[in-house]
Please model this.
Amino acid sequence: MSTTLNAKETTKSRDEIAAEYKWNFSDIYPSWEAWQADFDQLMTKMDEVAAYKGTISKSAANLAKALKTQDELSVIAYKVYLYPMLQKDVDTRNMEALGKLQQVQMAFAKFGVATAWITPELLTIPQETMMKWIAETPELKDQKFGMEDMYRNQERVMSEDKEKIVSYFGPTSGTASSVYSSLTTADVEFPTIKLANGEEVTLTHGAYSKILSTDNNRENRKAAKEAYEPVYRKKLNTIASIYKGIVDNDWAHAQVRGYNSCLEAALDGNNIPTDVYLNLINTVKENTAPLQRYHKVRAQILNLEGDYHGYDSRISISDFEKKYPYDEAKEMVVEAVKPLGEDYNVKIKKAIANGWLDVYETPGKRSGAYSINVYGVHPFMLLNYNGTMDYVFTLAHELGHTLHSMLSSENQPFSTHNYTIFVAEVASTFNERLMLDHMLSNTKDPHERIALLQQAIEGITGTFYAQAMFADFEYQAHSLAEQGKPITAESLSAICDDLDKAYYGDAFVKDNNKPSMFWARIPHFYNSPFYVYQYATCFASSAEIYNKVTTGKKKDRKIALEKYITLLKSGGNDYPMNQLKKAGVDLSTKEPILAIINQLDNLVTQLEQEVAKLK
Model:
């Protein structure tokens, strides 16, 4: 018998899964007919916005009307775009949803061309005049931060005709990413292996991850790795060509706007100094000793000194194999976040209601997990829940994003409701830390305690160290394009090999005949360039806020909590570095980064002590 491994050892079809564990798309639209009606309205709104050309610089009233129409259009656009996108994500083979999504993308591209005049025309209005209009016109009050930011970037805006030319390339920007998604998900024939017990398992993305995380039979893990790797390794040259297209696109757009580097272009939108990024990757790369120490301790515990491989790095170091049913896990999260106050608790109970989460892996469903906000409706969370402890923390993580979106949407106007990526992972990793506290305080099982310590450590190794390493890769890969050097499978693997050595030293056995290929397997590289570093900076920010909320005098803790909730409510109403400083975090210094590194060292020591108690 051939099976596909997940929490229940088989992947059910969507029809076999109860409605309470699936997204309720009718929360957005009751039917494709209703979607089409809004799509038609979207096209009408696009024409209305275009009709304001030549008028918005003439009066505050005209500007207010145009921006109001544009915001109304954007609210509809959220729904019209995400309705087919979400359906495609739960079944990448859904050609109807894909067709509708492409229809929306083409409409957006057309709109981009038709409205390329807006920013250049706005910039004909002197900044002093604009600020006067905003001060005197209530309808423009919500636009103040956006307008201030626009003038900050004034030198990056080109003439109307040049902006129009650039807008024509909009539809091509996401092509490489779409090809990568199809190549590594929809078009994959997943391999099948026979486990030691004779069972055959189809290695979907979720099944492979579960074997490496939970299967204590080392030969099964080794067999899974050897069978799964070719899914990517046989396509390395193709994937490298895809990635080259993404990097070339990033560099082209950076040069068009007058930036000196892809990094500068990527960070400038949120007014993040490049020194913050370089401080992160350099500080972490100089302080990898605790990371190497952890893996050497693991090798000792597992009796694998001198024979410790990548497929040994995720398995539990205790005999703890408990599975957490989804319904139990979601109640655990509710209990864990109680320190954040009654309002937060009420909202999280609403968030786990039917229709907000798509819980289990199904055929054709995209891998991973995310939370995305459909403005005016509610956030939608995608999971591939498999019952492991890791996925319990993933649930807490995604609910952190969801509550951030809820609080932001409720407290900000549309123009500033959308928080930046730079602060996006603070709420999610904060929830993970609360989850750890809750689970540690509610178990006396020494094996579970060791597993939880391992979870905390790997939160740092995975969300902090690994993401900093990935950020270093992206910086170096984009530098190749900037220097006119080749971007090939060989050059990308060379970067990864050097980073593996810097981060892990001799902690792992290295197969010199197989160059590192983590560059081919990280979806963020293809979907969201220069995104992953923010996992690391957010992790440091979250840890610092957590310390202030949970330690010290009661009065100080209360103030820290109020500042944290204010951060979640603030959406995108200021630059993220400023938002974090208001919450008590300064990422321009090394201190938050070094604090996490020292925390890892202390946790490894605690782990050694707990393991010693079992001997």
Summary: The longest strand covers residues 370-374. DSSP finds 27 helices and six strands in the chain. Residues 549 and 560 are 5 Å apart (CA to CA). The beta strands are 2-4, 192-194, 200-202, 357-358, 370-374, 378-382.
